[in-house]
């Protein structure tokens, strides 16, 4: 079943918009807000940072379900999914990896936009409270200056909880980390430390 969002404001469209999409749940609020501004985005799924093919496919499947319900055209660059690109981009700067990951994904989005006649680009990364908004804006503005394609740095975070509630209502798969190996390790760090303590304790008592 498709869903139509009610909007209190309908401005004139700014042009053909390409929305980089990191996952289905994060697309809910940005799509609504952009449509309320009079734009009708197309989604682009390009995320070589996602670690594990099974995780990639799970997020892709959830995005397709979301897109169907939103009537959102979605382009998935599956033949370009290559985590080696991500690891090369962040090599030797893993502790400051996020800006380089943003650049990798947004550069491809802007290139696709230029190749296919889009005049504007935005990203669902601007919805998450866990992402570095200023770093995303810096990359987007740099690419805007370089390509002449407008970057819409909207702040979608005001709909954070609403998006969470809606994704749960729809039964969407909600991942617990951004996607990369390092973020999953960060999430599991306490577990690994606890296991290390248990192993040390077992060694001392044996």
Automatic annotation (TrEMBL):
- The source's superkingdom equals Bacteria
In which organism is this protein found? Desulfonatronum thiosulfatophilum
Which pathway, metabolic or otherwise, does it act in?
tRNA modification; tRNA-queuosine biosynthesis
Q: What does this protein do?
A: Catalyzes the conversion of epoxyqueuosine (oQ) to queuosine (Q), which is a hypermodified base found in the wobble positions of tRNA(Asp), tRNA(Asn), tRNA(His) and tRNA(Tyr).
Q: Which cysteine pairs make disulfide bonds?
A: 178-180
Listed HAMAP family: QueH
Q: Does the keyword section mention Nucleotidyltransferase? A: no
Q: Which reaction does it catalyse?
A: epoxyqueuosine(34) in tRNA + AH2 = queuosine(34) in tRNA + A + H2O
Q: What is its EC number?
A: 1.17.99.6
One Pfam annotation, family name? QueH
The family assignment reads: Belongs to the QueH family.
**Keyword Protein biosynthesis attached:** no
Q: Which GO terms describe its molecular function?
A: 4 iron, 4 sulfur cluster binding; epoxyqueuosine reductase activity; metal ion binding
The biological process GO terms on file are: tRNA queuosine(34) biosynthetic process
Task: List the keywords (alphabetical).
Answer: 4Fe-4S, Disulfide bond, Iron, Iron-sulfur, Metal-binding, Oxidoreductase, Queuosine biosynthesis, Redox-active center, tRNA processing
Q: Where does [4Fe-4S] cluster bind?
A: 22-23, 98, 101
Cite the InterPro entries for this sequence: QueH (IPR003828)
Name by which UniProt lists this protein: Epoxyqueuosine reductase QueH
């Amino acid at each position: 079943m498709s869903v139509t969002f009610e909007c209190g404001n309908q401005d004139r469209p700014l042009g053909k918009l390409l929305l980089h999409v990191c996952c289905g749940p994060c697309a809910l609020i940005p799509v609504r807000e952009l449509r309320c501004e009079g734009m009708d985005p197309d989604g682009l799924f390009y995320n070589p940072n996602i670690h594990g093919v099974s995780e990639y496919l799970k997020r892709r499947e959830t995005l397709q379900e979301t897109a169907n319900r939103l009537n959102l055209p979605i382009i998935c660059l599956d033949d370009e999914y290559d985590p080696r690109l991500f690891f090369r981009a962040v090599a030797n700067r893993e502790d400051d990896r996020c800006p380089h990951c943003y650049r990798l994904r947004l550069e491809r989005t802007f290139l696709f936009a230029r190749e296919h006649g889009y005049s504007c680009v935005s990203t669902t990364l601007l919805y998450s409270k866990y992402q570095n908004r200023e770093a995303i804006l810096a990359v987007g503005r740099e690419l805007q200056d370089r390509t002449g394609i407008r970057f819409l740095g909207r702040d979608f975070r005001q709909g954070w909880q609403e998006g969470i509630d809606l994704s749960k209502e729809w039964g969407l798969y909600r991942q617990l980390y951004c996607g990369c190996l390092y973020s999953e390790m960060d999430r599991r760090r306490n577990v690994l430390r606890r296991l290390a303590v248990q192993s040390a304790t077992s060694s001392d008592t044996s």
